[in-house]
Amino acid sequence: MLAEVGRGRVLVVPGGGQFAESVRETQRYWRFDDLTAHNMAVLGMAQTAHMLHALEPRLVLAADEADIRRVLHAGQAALWMPLPVLRDAPDLLTSWEVTADSLALWLALRSNAEALVVVKSGSVPSQLTLAQLTARGTVDARFADWARDAPFPIEVVECTDMDRVRDGLLGGPSFLQPDLPRAFQAARTRRGANAGARSRRKNPPA
Protein backbone atom coordinates (compact mmCIF):
# COMPACT_ATOMS: atom_id res chain seq x y z
CA MET A 1 0.00 0.00 0.00
CA LEU A 2 2.73 2.50 0.96
CA ALA A 3 4.65 1.74 -2.21
CA GLU A 4 1.57 2.59 -4.27
CA VAL A 5 0.01 5.63 -2.59
CA GLY A 6 3.17 6.92 -0.91
CA ARG A 7 5.27 7.45 -4.01
CA GLY A 8 7.43 10.53 -3.69
CA ARG A 9 6.07 11.18 -0.20
CA VAL A 10 6.75 8.29 2.15
CA LEU A 11 9.91 7.16 3.93
CA VAL A 12 9.49 3.80 5.67
CA VAL A 13 11.65 3.09 8.73
CA PRO A 14 11.78 -0.67 9.43
CA GLY A 15 11.55 -2.02 12.94
CA GLY A 16 13.94 -4.61 14.29
CA GLY A 17 11.24 -7.17 15.02
CA GLN A 18 12.45 -10.63 15.94
CA PHE A 19 15.95 -9.73 14.80
CA ALA A 20 16.20 -7.09 17.54
CA GLU A 21 14.56 -9.37 20.09
CA SER A 22 17.25 -11.96 19.43
CA VAL A 23 19.85 -9.27 20.20
CA ARG A 24 18.19 -8.60 23.57
CA GLU A 25 18.22 -12.29 24.42
CA THR A 26 21.83 -12.70 23.28
CA GLN A 27 22.94 -9.69 25.32
CA ARG A 28 21.24 -11.03 28.44
CA TYR A 29 23.15 -14.29 28.03
CA TRP A 30 26.59 -12.95 27.03
CA ARG A 31 26.39 -9.59 28.90
CA PHE A 32 28.11 -7.50 26.24
CA ASP A 33 27.81 -3.70 26.23
CA ASP A 34 24.95 -1.58 24.89
CA LEU A 35 27.06 -0.13 22.09
CA THR A 36 27.48 -3.60 20.64
CA ALA A 37 23.80 -4.35 21.19
CA HIS A 38 22.85 -1.10 19.43
CA ASN A 39 24.89 -1.97 16.36
CA MET A 40 23.50 -5.50 16.28
CA ALA A 41 19.94 -4.18 16.59
CA VAL A 42 20.55 -1.68 13.78
CA LEU A 43 21.72 -4.57 11.62
CA GLY A 44 18.47 -6.29 12.62
CA MET A 45 16.56 -3.30 11.27
CA ALA A 46 18.62 -3.59 8.09
CA GLN A 47 17.57 -7.25 7.79
CA THR A 48 13.93 -6.18 8.11
CA ALA A 49 14.53 -3.58 5.39
CA HIS A 50 15.93 -6.24 3.05
CA MET A 51 12.94 -8.48 3.78
CA LEU A 52 10.44 -5.68 3.11
CA HIS A 53 12.23 -4.80 -0.13
CA ALA A 54 12.08 -8.45 -1.22
CA LEU A 55 8.35 -8.56 -0.46
CA GLU A 56 7.68 -5.16 -2.10
CA PRO A 57 10.46 -4.16 -4.57
CA ARG A 58 8.78 -0.81 -5.20
CA LEU A 59 10.04 0.26 -1.77
CA VAL A 60 13.47 1.55 -2.70
CA LEU A 61 16.33 1.08 -0.24
CA ALA A 62 17.99 4.33 0.78
CA ALA A 63 20.68 4.74 3.43
CA ASP A 64 21.60 8.40 3.81
CA GLU A 65 19.70 11.65 3.39
CA ALA A 66 20.98 12.18 -0.16
CA ASP A 67 19.73 8.72 -1.14
CA ILE A 68 16.35 9.40 0.47
CA ARG A 69 15.96 12.71 -1.40
CA ARG A 70 16.92 11.05 -4.68
CA VAL A 71 14.35 8.28 -4.25
CA LEU A 72 11.54 10.65 -3.25
CA HIS A 73 12.35 13.13 -6.01
CA ALA A 74 12.09 10.23 -8.46
CA GLY A 75 8.51 9.69 -7.31
CA GLN A 76 9.18 6.49 -5.41
CA ALA A 77 8.65 5.40 -1.81
CA ALA A 78 11.88 5.15 0.21
CA LEU A 79 12.80 2.36 2.62
CA TRP A 80 15.48 3.34 5.10
CA MET A 81 18.60 1.19 5.36
CA PRO A 82 19.79 2.39 8.80
CA LEU A 83 23.50 1.73 8.43
CA PRO A 84 24.38 5.43 9.05
CA VAL A 85 23.42 5.00 12.72
CA LEU A 86 26.01 2.28 13.34
CA ARG A 87 28.39 3.69 15.93
CA ASP A 88 32.05 3.30 16.92
CA ALA A 89 31.55 4.95 20.31
CA PRO A 90 28.58 5.39 22.66
CA ASP A 91 26.23 8.35 22.16
CA LEU A 92 22.57 9.18 22.82
CA LEU A 93 21.42 6.57 20.31
CA THR A 94 23.32 3.61 21.71
CA SER A 95 21.04 2.28 24.44
CA TRP A 96 17.83 0.30 24.64
CA GLU A 97 16.05 3.55 25.53
CA VAL A 98 16.28 4.25 21.79
CA THR A 99 14.65 1.73 19.46
CA ALA A 100 13.26 2.02 15.95
CA ASP A 101 10.56 4.34 17.39
CA SER A 102 12.98 7.11 18.33
CA LEU A 103 15.24 6.38 15.37
CA ALA A 104 12.25 7.06 13.11
CA LEU A 105 11.66 10.33 14.96
CA TRP A 106 15.36 11.20 14.74
CA LEU A 107 15.31 10.61 10.98
CA ALA A 108 12.05 12.54 10.54
CA LEU A 109 13.58 15.55 12.29
CA ARG A 110 16.69 15.39 10.10
CA SER A 111 14.62 14.95 6.95
CA ASN A 112 12.23 17.87 7.57
CA ALA A 113 9.29 15.48 7.48
CA GLU A 114 5.72 16.74 7.26
CA ALA A 115 4.39 14.09 9.66
CA LEU A 116 5.43 10.94 11.52
CA VAL A 117 3.26 7.86 11.93
CA VAL A 118 4.57 5.10 14.19
CA VAL A 119 2.88 1.77 13.46
CA LYS A 120 2.83 -0.73 16.33
CA SER A 121 1.88 -4.40 16.36
CA GLY A 122 0.24 -4.14 19.81
CA SER A 123 -2.70 -2.13 21.07
CA VAL A 124 -2.51 1.67 21.13
CA PRO A 125 -5.21 3.21 23.35
CA SER A 126 -6.43 6.28 21.49
CA GLN A 127 -6.83 8.54 24.54
CA LEU A 128 -3.25 8.25 25.81
CA THR A 129 -0.63 10.96 25.42
CA LEU A 130 2.84 10.24 24.10
CA ALA A 131 4.15 10.38 27.66
CA GLN A 132 1.60 7.77 28.72
CA LEU A 133 2.39 5.59 25.72
CA THR A 134 6.05 5.81 26.70
CA ALA A 135 5.28 4.91 30.33
CA ARG A 136 3.32 1.81 29.29
CA GLY A 137 6.10 0.72 26.89
CA THR A 138 4.16 1.21 23.68
CA VAL A 139 6.99 3.43 22.40
CA ASP A 140 10.53 3.58 23.69
CA ALA A 141 11.79 5.57 26.66
CA ARG A 142 13.15 8.54 24.71
CA PHE A 143 10.29 9.02 22.29
CA ALA A 144 8.01 11.41 24.17
CA ASP A 145 10.94 13.55 25.30
CA TRP A 146 12.34 13.95 21.81
CA ALA A 147 8.89 14.47 20.29
CA ARG A 148 8.23 17.66 22.26
CA ASP A 149 10.21 19.81 19.82
CA ALA A 150 8.97 18.12 16.66
CA PRO A 151 7.56 20.70 14.21
CA PHE A 152 5.23 18.14 12.63
CA PRO A 153 2.26 16.04 13.77
CA ILE A 154 3.00 12.64 15.29
CA GLU A 155 0.60 9.76 15.70
CA VAL A 156 1.08 6.25 17.05
CA VAL A 157 -1.31 3.75 15.47
CA GLU A 158 -1.98 0.03 15.47
CA CYS A 159 -1.04 -2.01 12.42
CA THR A 160 -4.77 -2.62 11.91
CA ASP A 161 -5.20 1.13 11.29
CA MET A 162 -3.37 1.20 7.98
CA ASP A 163 -6.57 2.17 6.18
CA ARG A 164 -6.39 5.48 8.06
CA VAL A 165 -2.82 5.92 6.89
CA ARG A 166 -3.90 5.24 3.33
CA ASP A 167 -6.78 7.72 3.59
CA GLY A 168 -4.41 10.37 4.90
CA LEU A 169 -2.00 9.87 2.01
CA LEU A 170 -4.89 10.09 -0.45
CA GLY A 171 -6.09 13.34 1.09
CA GLY A 172 -9.14 11.97 2.88
CA PRO A 173 -10.00 11.88 6.59
CA SER A 174 -7.06 10.59 8.59
CA PHE A 175 -5.21 10.57 11.88
CA LEU A 176 -3.80 13.99 10.98
CA GLN A 177 -7.15 15.76 11.38
CA PRO A 178 -7.27 18.07 14.44
CA ASP A 179 -9.61 15.89 16.50
CA LEU A 180 -7.57 12.72 16.17
CA PRO A 181 -3.86 13.13 17.03
CA ARG A 182 -4.55 13.30 20.75
CA ALA A 183 -1.16 12.01 21.84
CA PHE A 184 0.64 14.64 19.80
CA GLN A 185 -1.65 17.48 20.84
CA ALA A 186 -1.38 16.68 24.54
CA ALA A 187 2.41 16.59 24.40
CA ARG A 188 2.55 19.90 22.55
CA THR A 189 0.06 21.50 24.98
CA ARG A 190 2.20 20.57 27.95
CA ARG A 191 5.28 21.93 26.24
CA GLY A 192 3.51 25.23 25.57
CA ALA A 193 2.41 25.54 29.18
CA ASN A 194 5.96 25.01 30.39
CA ALA A 195 7.77 26.92 27.68
CA GLY A 196 9.60 29.09 30.18
CA ALA A 197 10.91 26.20 32.22
CA ARG A 198 14.53 25.20 31.94
CA SER A 199 14.82 21.80 30.24
CA ARG A 200 17.24 19.15 31.45
CA ARG A 201 16.25 16.49 28.96
CA LYS A 202 18.58 15.06 26.35
CA ASN A 203 17.72 16.19 22.85
CA PRO A 204 18.15 13.84 19.89
CA PRO A 205 21.63 14.17 18.37
CA ALA A 206 21.86 16.24 15.21
Which secondary structure elements does this structure contain, and how are they paired or packed?
Elements: H1 2-5, E1 11-12, H2 17-30, H3 34-55, E2 59-62, H4 65-73, E3 77-80, H5 100-110, E4 116-120, H6 130-135, H7 143-147, E5 154-158, H8 162-169, H9 182-193
Parallel strand pairs: 1-3, 2-3, 4-5
Written account of the structure:
The chain is mostly helical and 206 residues long. The protein has helices at 2-5, 17-30, 34-55, 65-73, 100-110, 130-135, 143-147, 162-169, 182-193, and strands spanning 11-12, 59-62, 77-80, 116-120, 154-158. The chain folds into two domains: 1-96, no CATH class; 97-206, no CATH class. 44% of the residues lie in helices and 10% in strands. It has a three-stranded parallel β-sheet with strand order 1-3-2, sandwiched between helices. It has a two-stranded parallel sheet with strand order 4-5. Helix 2 (17-30) runs antiparallel to helix 3. Residues 177-201 have low confidence and may be disordered.
Low-confidence stretches: 177-201
Helical amount: 40-55%
What is the total domain count? Answer: 2
Instruction: List the helices and strands in order.
Output: HEHHEHEHEHHEHH
* Proportion in β-strands: 5-15%
C-alpha termini separation: 31 Å
The spatial strand order of the largest sheet comes to 1-3-2
Strand count, sense and barrel status of the largest sheet are:
3 strands, parallel
| Radius of gyration computed on alpha carbons | 17 Å
How would you describe the shape?
A: globular
Structural class by helix and strand composition? mainly alpha
Put simply, the count of helices is 9
Q: How many extended strands?
A: 5
Q: What is the average of the pLDDT values? A: 86
